[in-house]
């Protein structure tokens, strides 16, 4: 069952082990992918978010017990003209979040296609989460929660309804992925290989905001 609550990661202990993984965000334009990432990394979203061109790169650090987890997030553009480029971001990816809009039934169908593509082309051990975004628009819901949950269960996906606007389940879905990754997952040697062409959505003068904090 999807988590509808809100939790905060714990403060790290001295001498934490360090793990790192690469995550790709997939979904059609205007479903709130970039807003989810900004909410997770910076703690807020912009009133107007321009569509991602190609892909955007961000980084975040979260804490799990005695482990510091560094998350490298690739926000892949959803526009059709960029779709052919998406598979190149699958290289070295250990996790993915596929986003649909709970107010748009067709978006759920497209999300299923994205999941199928990941299962066919990405690492067979990839951790995939399904995010039903815009859950704050409950009065406009077009995708039944139980239908999405059943689909996720049948395909061994993590599933949560989220809201970048209210922050509902935003931290939680990233943390759930981090917890599901193998504890002995080797560091990804190619994680930094594409940094020369990245677009970092955080301000250059600001350090990456850590999610490691007290309750």
TrEMBL record:
Reactions catalysed: GTP + H2O = GDP + phosphate + H(+)
Chief location: membrane
GO biological process assignments: protein transport
Cited InterPro entries: P-loop_NTPase (IPR027417), Small_GTP-bd (IPR005225), Small_GTPase (IPR001806)
EC number, UniProt record: 3.6.5.2
A GO CC annotation given for this chain: early endosome membrane
Keyword terms of this UniProt record: Endosome, GTP-binding, Hydrolase, Lipoprotein, Nucleotide-binding, Prenylation, Protein transport, Transport
Biased composition range(s): Polar residues: 203-215
GO molecular function (one): G protein activity
CDD domains: Rab5_related
Gene3D superfamilies in the cross-refs: P-loop containing nucleotide triphosphate hydrolases (3.40.50.300)
Region ranges (Disordered): 181-215
Main EC class the enzyme belongs to: hydrolase
Membrane-protein topology: Lipid-anchor
Cofactor: Mg(2+)
Subcellular location: Cell membrane; Early endosome membrane; Melanosome
Record-linked PANTHER family: PTHR47978
Assigned protein family: Belongs to the small GTPase superfamily. Rab family.
Name of the protein described by the UniProt record: small monomeric GTPase
Organism: Balaenoptera physalus
């Amino acid at each position: 069952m999807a988590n509808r609550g809100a939790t905060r990661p714990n403060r790290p202990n001295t001498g934490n082990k360090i793990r790192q993984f690469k995550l790709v965000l997939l979904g059609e334009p205007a479903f709130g992918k970039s807003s989810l990432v900004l909410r997770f990394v910076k703690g807020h979203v912009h009133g107007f978010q321009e569509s991602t061109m190609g892909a955007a790169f961000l980084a975040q650090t979260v804490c799990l017990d005695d482990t510091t987890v560094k998350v490298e997030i690739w926000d892949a553009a959803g526009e059709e003209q960029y779709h052919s480029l998406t598979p190149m971001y699958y290289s070295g990816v250990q996790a993915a979040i596929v986003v649909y809009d709970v107010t748009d039934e067709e978006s759920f169908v497209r999300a299923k296609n994205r999941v199928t593509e990941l299962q066919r082309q990405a690492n067979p051990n990839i951790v995939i989460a399904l995010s039903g975004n815009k859950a704050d628009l409950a009065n406009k819901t077009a995708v039944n929660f139980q239908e999405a949950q059943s689909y996720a269960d049948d395909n061994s996906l993590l599933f949560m309804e989220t809201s970048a606007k209210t922050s509902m389940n935003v931290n939680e879905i990233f943390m759930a992925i981090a917890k599901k990754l193998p504890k002995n997952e080797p560091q990804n040697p190619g994680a930094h290989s594409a940094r020369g062409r990245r677009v970092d959505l955080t301000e250059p003068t600001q350090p990456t905001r850590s999610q490691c904090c007290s309750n």
